Amino acid sequence: MHPKLLFKHSFETDKNAIWFILGNPEARLLPNYLPNVGIELMYKLAKKRYMRLPKKVEREIETEIKKRYRLFEEDTEKTITKMEVLWRPFEKEFFNRMENLSGEKWKYNTYVAYVSPFSTLNSYFGSDNKILIEMSINWERFKWTIAHELIHLLVYERLKRYSLSESERILVGELAVEYILFEDPVLKKHWPNQKYVLWGESKDMWKGIAPKKSLMKIKKEFRSGLDGRFDKFLEECIGIIKTH
Question: Of 125, 164, 196, 225, which cross-links 168 as Cys (Cβ 3.0–4.6 Å)?
């Protein structure tokens, strides 16, 4: 039986998303962030980040975050309903395909996608069973985005077998996930209009690391079939990162 993905909304996730954004100057400028959080709360949070505040102000911040959470609660629930409808027909095929591709069972029976109006980017939560999805997601690439984050969880577990630095693990993971999404014949048919691209810090670290020739070598591995050869594929991804 394949795992099930649950879509949820929680106060703690929203609060963490708000705090996270304060450490990401570029994300703070995104148009959906400031209106959702509010200028006054943003100002208080910025002050809290750089100075010690009285307990009274800390409680005011907590109260304000709860107000913002309730303000978007109805819209978030509507978004979750839409996500459920779009994901369910694809769920079984996705989880089963990744098990066949990697030769490994998914670690958990249930995975959770936390949906937040305060997140400005999607992310996976390391080796756990949780991913974070922004509420203002691009619906044209919805299934691709969910698949991307879930494959990160699977690849992250597999990469524990190898001696890698954190930056190497990020790059190997991003490279492996992107090629699985765009070169596996079973999966890529679900997002025919998407283009290969490295995101965020992976894109920054990737600049100048791997020549096109090495990337084409990885691509050839997919074209000759990955079933039962997942470790060989990951080792080749690692080789690209470590030798350039």
Answer: 164
> Which range, 3-12, 13-22, 58-67, 123-132, is most confident?
3-12
Average of per-residue pLDDT values in the chain: 77
Instruction: Provide the CA 98 distance to its chain's centre, in angstroms.
Output: 17
Q: Is the pLDDT of residue 30 over 50?
A: no
CA–CA dist 220, 215 (Å, integer): 9
User: How do 130-134 and 110-116 pair as beta strands?
Assistant: parallel
| Secondary structure string (H, E, C) spanning 133-185 | EECCCCHHHHHHHHHHHHHHHHHHHHHCCCCCCHHHHHHHHHHHHHHHHHHCH
Separation between Cα atoms, residue 63 and residue 81, nearest integer Å: 27
Distance in angstroms (rounded) separating the CA atoms of residues 4 and 109: 6
